[in-house]
Amino acid sequence: HENRAPLRIDLVLQKMVRDARLGGHKVELDSQPLTAFGKPLALKRALGNLLDNAMFYGESQQQPVQVAIAPGEAGMVSVTVRDHGPGVPEAALARLGQPYTRL
């Protein structure tokens, strides 16, 4: 059971992007200081999965993976990860949020 706590999302993503670049990946980060309140380990795992999937399935030689964070509605934080892969087939969209689903 993980307790909820504040987490500087920008610092987490800066480290992830730095590590990805050291690994030879092309990643751009548009970041500003933002704090989210939640389960820190779960948030880090979710952000890492998004970035890993974008680099594995959607990184192209010409276009970097783009990551951006911004203030969201009602005090939330918006995280956008954009890649240049083929995308998710329309028939699989309904399964996208299900745990342990590989598309």
TrEMBL record:
<dbReference type="InterPro" id="IPR050980">
    <property type="entry name" value="2C_sensor_his_kinase"/>
</dbReference>
<dbReference type="Pfam" id="PF02518">
    <property type="entry name" value="HATPase_c"/>
</dbReference>
<dbReference type="GO" id="GO:0005524">
    <property type="term" value="F:ATP binding"/>
</dbReference>
<keyword id="KW-0067">ATP-binding</keyword>
<feature type="domain" description="Histidine kinase/HSP90-like ATPase">
    <location>
        <begin position="39"/>
        <end position="102"/>
    </location>
</feature>
<dbReference type="InterPro" id="IPR036890">
    <property type="entry name" value="HATPase_C_sf"/>
</dbReference>
<dbReference type="GO" id="GO:0005886">
    <property type="term" value="C:plasma membrane"/>
</dbReference>
<protein>
    <recommendedName>
        <fullName>histidine kinase</fullName>
        <ecNumber>2.7.13.3</ecNumber>
    </recommendedName>
</protein>
<keyword id="KW-0418">Kinase</keyword>
<keyword id="KW-0547">Nucleotide-binding</keyword>
<dbReference type="InterPro" id="IPR003594">
    <property type="entry name" value="HATPase_dom"/>
</dbReference>
<keyword id="KW-0808">Transferase</keyword>
<dbReference type="GO" id="GO:0000155">
    <property type="term" value="F:phosphorelay sensor kinase activity"/>
</dbReference>
